[in-house]
Specification:
5-stranded antiparallel sheet, Immunoglobulin-like, Pili_assmbl_chaperone_N, 5-stranded mixed sheet, 256 residues, single chain, 17 strands, signal, 9% helix, mainly beta
């Protein structure tokens, strides 16, 4: 019965995304990401129902497939309780426990925590069989952080290298290469070259050891390293943190 209800709710959630973007969920998560240090036996996340009616809540963790359901999601964690009623103005703590299985020891691993809220059918509805019931899904990142990684997450953005790269179609992109073992999520990037500022407000996440391309405006900068890159990244606490990367002086400039 619960599985059938949740499946119907998932379909309703898709309809909601297309038809009612201004509607807000009642169940609120206390964070925008979860950090799971390897040294901890478990971590927790607090949920609060700020609405005026109870909701049925289902939670699960997947390894990156946004279409995964609680029945087929792949992860190395146990989440409890996975299904519960959350009364109005009440809270519930989700406990996340790592299974005894090997994860990468030299970099963070990324998983996703899903929280699906199914509100009750309005009691004022004259025809509950033909009424449309919306469901809301929140999906946030879960980072498993091994013990002993070099550096720290807050300083990782300072290690990133930036370059303008010309694509085959003649357009340029700004690339960010992350040599650290941490995931870095940027929300805004501005690169300066030749007195011109190239902006990207879409943001992106750069995986450990990975490279990401940021689209920039139509003007084509020279290839190579920008003179300066200003950026905003998301900290472990979900806050936006600003930083600046300046190009290293060339050997010729050093000698002057």
């Amino acid at each position: 019965m619960f599985k059938t209800s949740i499946c119907r709710a998932a379909i309703a959630a898709v309809l909601l995304a297309m038809t009612a973007p201004g509607t807000l969920a009642s169940v609120v998560l206390t964070g925008t990401r979860v950090i799971y240090p390897e040294s901890e036996r478990e971590v927790s996340l607090k949920l609060t129902n700020e609405g005026d009616a109870p909701s049925l809540v289902q939670a699960w963790i997947d390894d990156g497939d946004p279409n995964a359901t609680p029945e087929n999601a792949k992860s190395l964690f146990v989440l409890t309780p996975p299904l519960f009623r959350l009364d109005a103005k009440k809270g519930q703590t989700l406990r996340i426990i790592q299974l005894q299985q090997a994860l990468s020891r030299d970099q963070e691993s990324l998983f996703w925590l899903n929280v699906l809220e199914v509100p009750p059918i309005a009691s004022s509805s004259k025809d509950p069989q033909n009424s449309l019931q919306f469901a809301f899904r929140s999906r946030i990142k879960l980072f498993f952080r091994p013990t002993g990684l070099p550096g720290d997450a807050d300083s990782a953005p300072t290690k990133v290298t930036w370059r303008f790269v010309r694509k085959d179609d003649g357009h340029h992109v700004l690339t960010a290469t992350n040599p650290t073992p941490y995931h870095i999520t940027y929300t805004k990037v501005e690169a300066t070259s030749g007195g011109h500022v190239y902006s990207n407000d879409a943001g992106a996440m750069v995986n450990p050891g990975g490279t990401v391309e940021f689209a920039i405006d139509d003007a084509s900068p020279v290839s190579g390293e920008p003179a300066q890159v200003s950026y905003t990244f998301i900290s472990d606490y979900g806050a936006g943190v600003s930083g600046v990367h300046n190009a290293k002086p060339t050997q010729e400039a050093k000698g002057q």
